[in-house]
Specification:
- The chain is of the alpha/beta class.
- The chain has helices at residues 33-45, 59-70, 78-81, 110-120, 134-138, 142-150, 184-196, 212-219, 250-262, 281-288, 337-346, 366-376, 407-419, 439-447; strands at residues 7-8, 15-17, 24-28, 50-53, 74-76, 87-90, 104-105, 127-131, 154-158, 162-168, 176-178, 200-204, 224-227, 230-234, 243-245, 267-274, 292-294, 310-316, 324-325, 350-353, 380-384, 387-391, 399-402, 424-427.
- Helix 11 links the parallel strand 19 (324-325) and strand 20.
- Helix 1 (33-45) runs parallel beside helix 4 (110-120) and helix 1 (33-45) packs parallel to helix 8.
- Bound molecules: shikimate-3-phosphate (S3P).
- Residues 34, 37, 111, 183-185, 188, 209-210, 334-335, 358 line the site of shikimate-3-phosphate.
């Protein structure tokens, strides 16, 4: 019979995903990548030891643990902290990061590359260099350098905008900054610099983006408030956290969710999913496309508190119609847009994603790689400057898909394989370990 469990392809890290079985059963959503990065960084900043539950152990977030250790934080894992993502972080405090020999390696992690400088920029008299893999070296840091410089930071980047990125700590002052693009990474960087700066820092963004940093800062006693003028944080407030429980990652769960929607006869429950409304755009799009998703989401526009809501989601296969995704919705579903492209291939009508130029700056140029990838599998999809247009043809033939070292591309390819007519060979499946090391096994578990 056709097999939905992966078979080795030609290379060591090439895997085939064949159609053949409905998805049934339960999945515990893997721990949230964004929130794990923040837990490690804010744990290192906290004046008190922080207990973290359900930390994500994946390449990206392990790079963050390694970074905070090099900066002087003590991270206890294993027997003392326990397995299952339990950690105790004994931080160095807001101004206690120590200098390191040689560059800090952020690996593939854009979130680490953009958030860490916010903390380091205010630490007078010390300097650090951040560097990463080939993908990180292609992704610009000028978006954080501009506001940090306005706050008084001293920074140097290759060609003015790429890693290696050198940060020399200096006294910072609060600013009012209108972000040109909605980016939670940039917003978080400014907020982290803001807590060490003199005076108040105010940020505005053109559309709402994920607000995990704000929630975590509030939980640690820093007053972050939002009004018509923007998001405000005051410098110099003590920050101290005790406990962080990391919810499951909707962006990782989205692959199994999409597979369940696409493969006839499927019915899957995904447990412990973080349903903060700034992350659930994908579920709202799925529902618009006609999918059946059970479970309660945090209401859109909910004023962010200091906790992260979690929920079990129940997903069933269903017929899909096309959807249009506009700019305001893009930051709320940014990492799931490749899957919207995939779903569009199966939906009736034309699925359009607009205002998503940010996709070009992700782990790969995700407009180019999604379009090339889905076309290679028989999809009718065209790139635009800031998105793509997909014409649904009721399915996908299958073929080979190159992951380009991009974890989300690799996982999209796997899902495409299960839903395709002839199967998909994913070239470079190992990229999934950046955010979801257990992906292949867990997907196979659902297909039986
Ligand atoms: C992230 C924010 C998003 C997202 C990335 C993680 C974060 O980036 O694509 O995977 O943790 O803040 P931008 O906010 O820069 O678009």
């Amino acid at each position: 019979r056709g097999s939905a469990s992966p078979r080795r392809g030609r290379g060591m890290t090439d895997l085939r995903f064949d159609p053949g079985g409905r998805l049934r059963g339960e999945l515990i959503a893997p721990a949230d990548k964004s929130i794990s990065h923040r837990a490690a960084l804010l744990g290192a900043i906290s004046a008190e030891p922080v207990e973290v539950e359900n930390y994500l152990h994946a390449a990206d977030t392990d790079a963050t643990l390694a970074a905070v250790r090099r900066l002087g934080a003590v991270v206890e894992t294993g027997d003392r902290g326990g397995g299952n993502g339990r950690l105790v972080i004994r931080g160095v405090g807001l101004r206690g990061a120590r200098e390191c020999d040689g560059p800090i390696d952020v690996a593939n992690a854009g979130t680490l590359m953009r958030l860490l400088p916010g903390w380091l920029a205010g630490q007078d008299g010390r300097s650090w260099t951040l560097d990463g893999d080939a993908s990180i070296r292609r992704r610009p840091v000028d978006r954080i350098a501009a506001p940090l410089r306005e706050m008084g930071a001293r920074l140097d980047a290759r060609d003015g905008r790429f890693a290696p990125f050198r940060i020399t700590g200096s006294p910072l002052h609060g600013i009012t900054y209108a972000m040109p693009v909605a980016s939670a990474q940039v917003k978080s960087c400014i907020l982290l610099a803001g807590i060490a700066a003199d005076g108040e820092t105010t940020v505005t963004e053109p559309a709402a983006s994920r607000d995990h940093t704000e929630r975590m800062l509030r939980a640690g006693g820093v007053g972050v408030r939002r009004d018509e003028a923007g998001l405000h944080v005051s410098g110099g407030e003590p920050f101290s956290l005790h406990r962080i429980r990391v919810p499951g990652d909707l962006s990782s769960a989205a692959f199994a969710i999409a597979a369940a929607v696409l493969v006839p006869g499927s019915e899957v429950i995904v447990r412990n999913v973080g349903v903060n409304w700034t992350r659930t755009g994908f579920i709202r799009i799925l529902v618009r496309m006609g999918a059946t998703v059970g479970g309660e989401l945090e209401p859109a526009g909910a004023p962010g508190g200091d906790t992260e809501p979690i929920e079990d989601l129940e997903i069933r296969h269903g017929r899909l119609r096309a959807a249009v995704v506009e700019a305001a919705e893009v930051p709320l579903t940014i990492d799931e847009l490749p899957l919207v492209g995939l779903l569009g291939c199966f939906a009736e009508g034309q699925t359009i994603v607009r205002g998503a130029g940010e996709l070009r700056l992700k782990e790969s140029d995700r407009i180019a790689t999604v379009v090339e990838g889905l076309r290679g599998l028989g999809g009718e999809i065209e790139a635009t400057v800031d998105g793509f247009v997909v014409t649904g043809t009721g399915g996908l033939r299958g073929g080979r898909l190159e992951a380009h070292g991009d974890h989300r591309l690799a996982m999209m390819g796997a899902v495409a394989g299960l839903a395709s007519r002839e199967g998909v060979e994913v070239i470079g499946m190992e990229a999934a370990a950046v955010s979801y090391p257990g992906f292949v096994g867990e997907l196979a578990g659902l297909t039986g």
